[in-house]
Design a protein that fits this description.
Layout: H1 2-14, H2 21-30, H3 39-42, H4 53-57, H5 70-83, E1 87-94, E2 100-106, H6 109-113, H7 115-126, H8 133-142, E3 145-150, H9 159-173, H10 177-185, E4 186-191, H11 196-210, H12 245-257, E5 261-267, E6 272-274, H13 287-306, E7 312-313, H14 328-331, E8 336-342, E9 351-354, E10 359-360, E11 363-364, E12 379-382, H15 384-404, H16 406-421, H17 423-426, E13 431-435, H18 441-453, E14 459-461, E15 467-471, H19 477-484, H20 505-509, E16 514-516, E17 526-528, E18 538-540, E19 546-548, H21 556-566, E20 571-575, E21 579-581, E22 584-586, E23 591-594, H22 598-608, E24 611-614, E25 622-624, E26 630-633, H23 640-652, E27 657-659, H24 661-666, E28 675-678, H25 685-690, H26 724-736, E29 740-743, H27 746-753, E30 761-763, E31 773-779, E32 793-798, E33 803-805, E34 814-818, H28 842-859, E35 863-865, E36 878-885, E37 888-893, H29 907-915
Parallel strand pairs: 3-4, 3-5, 5-8, 6-7, 18-24, 26-27, 26-28, 28-29, 29-37
Antiparallel strand pairs: 1-2, 2-4, 6-8, 9-12, 10-11, 13-15, 13-16, 14-15, 14-17, 19-23, 19-24, 20-23, 20-25, 21-22, 30-33, 31-32, 31-34, 31-35, 34-36, 36-37
């Protein structure tokens, strides 16, 4: 009682405005320990004209057992919009499933009237070329900091949408000096539910399955199987592709407003992590930004610790290297991108949580460190309200810092733009050149358009040669350099990277990009692109059949499915081996098209970006393309990789059927499908066979009146359990009856461990460390149609994971290997041979040794972008294996050719497998 009395006295002393004692008492009741109750959050204002969450919902934010769906959250913000001139709400996007994505703007009444002018002035600061120094100083002197808060990105992290409702109420209802200073000096933007599809699924899951759980760590699934229509946790790994609606909305907010600070509110670690990263830091991020990460974090850490909050820290988690997170649109464009990780319970329950063994950067989270001056205890009783307290206290401290340091933040924002404009003066590379003529001109256009999507300026050379130019004297030069250069992740980094370490777009897209240390063009020779570009293709010559010189163009499979649908008599054939026809040498993989006239051929070439030549090839070494009936398998345990596969297939126009454990158990798969793709999924064979622990079953994921968000994109009356050995047997039968099974990445190891084919096993190289990097690969079976259109040696994107091995006498199963050097047991023996009368002469030995030396020299360039430790443990091992089983085949991909819709260069290896599924 004394604790409550003391806090009441403190809050009444600090604030002259009336406090909402009913609300405040509930905050105290739902906070499990007085040390989890910061002074800055306790004093909630009472405003009779503006409804609080308690007034509107009948409960406060963070109340036990209560979570709100996206429409309820938006309805509350609409009520605030109606009640206060300091807040407005607008729709800025629509999710894949049709839910609105809305942006809330909060500021003072005076600023609200001048929003348009404020936005224009900030846009000028974002591009220092558009204003002189005097004007810039004037804008900085009177300008406002735009501070963006993002909530609800990861759906099980449920606290931030609740917190942001209470924060918004506090900002518009509180008349204290501190809050008024924030509103006078800042434009606060709030995206309260950035993933509304996932939010609604998660809230339905909580009320349907989780609300009565008493133990957090009992293995019960805390999440529905899906969040977005396609993407699960990777919705925060889409910042380079910008494919999902959640990302598009965040990008729209950024380029509409150019916020100087973007703070993404997450939940994963105890008790509050304020991001700074351990390093290594991305070398293309302006050093000012890295300093600002520390400055903000140190202020917030100090202020929260001063309020008695234990367990706040600002180091030992995350690195600061990979630029593809959603909020990194800020760091990539001269602003400040940050995030919090608050401790969360995936719902409104209160649990006893044990954090005594949790470690980051080698330190227990209960240890006192320079970056964690006041650690928490090893166990704690943690509530949803505790979560709200920590997040809201941190945000308030951050907003106060932004308001107090308005001019410095605006000046730094402007200075970073200047630094980027002057980047080419200090950087060895002055520009990048992208030749228009490439093996895949569609991907050339795609690369240019992705740069434009990021706000990067691209010029086209007016006269020949036709090429695109990216100058490094523009506001986003550093980011352009980041996307187009080679990444060199420090091999001696003390801690493992948080994500992939390479993203060179030229490699990922299969587009040649040239760097230049000089400027070979005058300004008047270049024109700035204002719109997206495209390559429409053409037809040369006259005739009724046509030839496509196939060089692994990514759109071939789209074109084939499109032609099959639109042209009744269309026929495509693949040349199986190189041949000479007249003066032409026709490579294996060349595509012969017939059954269409020239007008149809022109339409097809324009639609899919092909250069066709009228003509034919007279050879018996060819086969007709019969496009397969494709199924994509998903487990209910992990839908991440499967979602990206579905998204990619839909973008490519490839029809498919989604199947799950019940389909495997039902069997008769070969009657319906020719190819089954098993996307990358985490776990082991045990997870694949048994799925979600059936002791929790039945767990329904079906659409009902009470839970309308469930049942999409797939449904089941019970998602527990797996296909079992019986379903695995049906999968084996599918292959033996002539089907083709294609497991990707970790799923390849799972299928190998299931012994669905002979002679292949999985293993984990003991010392290999292979975070996502671009590496060299080499054809082992040059005649395999899987490699059609690819040279003997090329590159692909590969991350950590198990590898597959075969006995030496089965190495003909390997289609593609990592690196150029053979495995140790395949290297030529150059020593003496006892007992053999005819020995190798010196010339033969010398030739063999020369070959070994050359292979070693080639293998030095295994890593083209990124970093691999102990690469000898992977070089020579299989990247792709093609293994027969009965009448069918299993094509093992030990990497992911459809990784996050990024490595388009690698995808044709999978497309080749589909196109030639019956001729492998």
């Amino acid at each position: 009682m004394f604790f409550i009395f003391l806090l009441t006295i403190i809050s009444q002393t600090i604030y002259a405005q009336n406090r909402d004692t009913a609300y405040q008492n509930r905050i105290i009741d739902f906070t499990t320990d007085e040390r989890f109750l910061p002074e800055s959050v306790l004093g909630i204002p009472k405003n009779d004209d503006i409804p609080s969450p308690l007034d509107h919902f009948g409960s406060i934010a963070g109340a036990p057992g209560i979570m709100h769906r996206s429409n309820e959250i938006y309805e509350y913000f609409t009520q605030l919009d109606n009640a206060s001139p300091k807040l407005q709400i607008e729709q800025i996007g629509t999710s894949e499933e049709g839910r609105p994505i809305k942006l809330v703007t909060i500021t003072s009444k005076a600023n609200m009237k001048d929003l348009l002018d404020i936005r224009k002035e900030i846009a000028l600061l974002a591009d220092p070329r558009k204003l002189d120094e005097k004007t810039a100083k004037k804008i900085i002197k009177k300008g406002k900091v735009v501070y963006f808060l993002n909530g609800g990105m990861h759906s099980t992290e449920m606290g931030s949408p609740e917190t942001l409702m209470e924060l918004a109420y506090r900002l518009v209802a509180d008349e204290s000096e501190d809050i008024q200073k924030i509103l006078d000096n800042c434009i606060v933007l709030i995206n309260p539910v950035s993933e509304p599809d996932g939010r609604d699924k998660q809230v339905d899951w909580y009320y349907r399955h989780s609300i009565d759980r008493e133990n957090y760590d009992d293995g019960f699934p805390k999440s529905p199987p899906y969040w977005g229509k396609y993407v699960f946790h990777d919705n925060n790994r889409d910042g380079l592709q910008v494919t999902q609606e959640i990302t598009k909305a965040i990008f729209k907010i950024f380029f509409d407003w150019h916020p100087q600070v973007m703070l993404d509110l997450h939940e994963s670690v105890p008790l509050l992590y304020i991001s700074t990263g351990t390093g290594p830091y991305n070398e293309n991020v302006d050093p000012i930004t890295i300093g600002e990460w520390q400055t903000f974090a140190n202020h917030e850490l100090t202020l929260l610790t001063a309020q008695g909050l234990p367990g706040v820290f600002n180091w030992a988690f995350y690195d600061g290297w990979w630029p593809g997170y959603g909020i990194w649109v800020a760091n990539n464009h001269n602003s400040i991108g940050r995030f919090y990780e608050t401790f969360g319970n995936a719902g409104g329950n209160t649990y006893l949580r044990d954090i005594s063994k949790a470690k980051f950067a080698g330190d227990l989270v209960t240890s006192r460190e320079w970056y964690r001056p006041d650690p928490a205890t090893g166990q704690l009783y943690w509530s949803s309200r505790n979560n709200v307290n920590y997040t809201e206290a941190g945000v308030l401290a951050s907003l106060q810092f932004a308001a107090d340091n308005r001019e410095t933040i605006l000046h730094n924002f402007y200075q970073k733009g200047l630094n980027s404009i002057n980047f080419s003066k200090t950087n060895d590379t002055k520009m990048y050149i992208i030749p228009e003529k490439q093996r895949d001109r569609v991907m050339t256009a795609y690369l240019v358009n992705q740069l434009l999507k990021q706000g990067i300026e691209v010029h086209r050379v007016k006269e020949k040669p036709k090429e695109y130019v990216v100058l490094l004297d523009q506001p986003y030069s550093r980011f352009a350099n980041d996307l187009l250069s080679i990444q060199q992740y420090p091999d001696n980094a003390k801690f493992p990277p948080y994500d992939a370490v390479a993203w060179t777009l030229g490699y990922l897209y299969g587009v040649d990009v040239e760097s230049s240390d000089s400027l070979p063009y005058n300004t008047d020779e270049l024109e700035l692109l204002k719109d997206a570009v495209s390559y429409n293709g053409m037809v040369k010559g006259e005739g009724s059949s046509f030839v496509l010189n196939y060089q692994a163009q990514t759109s071939l499979i789209s074109g084939l499915y499109g032609a099959q649908e639109n042209y009744e008599n269309f026929k495509a054939e693949i040349i199986d081996s190189m041949l000479v026809s007249g003066n032409d040498t026709i490579q294996a993989g060349t595509v012969l098209l017939s059954g269409i006239d020239k007008k149809q051929a022109e339409d097809w070439a324009n639609s899919f970006g092909f250069e066709l030549r009228a003509g034919s090839a007279d050879t018996e070494y060819k086969h007709e393309v019969k496009l397969p009936r494709v199924a994509v398998y998903h487990s209910w345990v992990d839908t991440q990789g499967e979602g990206w596969v579905r998204y990619t297939l839909e973008q490519k126009g490839i029809p498919y059927t989604s199947i799950n454990k019940d389909d495997l158990v039902e069997g008769n798969l070969r009657n319906s499908y020719d190819v089954i793709i098993i996307p990358n999924q985490r776990g082991t064979l045990n997870h694949f066979i048994n799925g979600i622990d059936d002791r929790f079953g039945p767990l329904a994921y079906t659409k009902t009146d009470e839970f309308p968000s469930h049942g999409t994109p797939d449904s089941s009356e019970d998602i527990t359990g797996g296909p079992g050995h019986f379903g695995l047997g049906n999968l084996k039968q599918f292959v033996e009856e002539g089907g083709v099974l294609i497991p990707l990445d970790n799923s390849a190891a799972i299928i190998a461990d299931a012994s669905l084919s002979k002679n292949v096993r999985s293993f984990s190289p003991g010392n290999l460390f292979h975070p996502g990097s671009v590496v060299t690969v080499k054809a082992r079976n040059k005649k395999s149609p899987i490699l059609n259109g690819f040279p003997e040696t090329f590159y692909l994107f590969k991350g950590n994971g198990k590898l597959l091995s075969t006995a030496k006498y089965d190495r003909d199963l390997i289609v593609l290997q990592y690196g150029t050097e053979p495995l140790e047991d395949e290297k030529a023996y150059t020593g003496k041979i006892l007992g053999l009368k005819t020995v190798k002469n010196k010339a033969e030995i010398s030739e063999a040794q020369t070959e070994v030396d050359q292979n070693k020299q080639k293998d030095e360039s295994y890593v083209l972008s990124g970093m691999v430790r102990n690469e000898k443990e992977i070089v020579g091992n299989a990247a792709i294996l093609n293994v027969s089983s009965g009448k069918g085949r299993i094509v093992y991909f030990t990497f992911n050719p459809l990784n996050r819709y990024l490595n388009h260069h690698d995808a044709p290896l999978l497309w080749n497998t589909l196109i030639n599924w019956d001729h492998l």
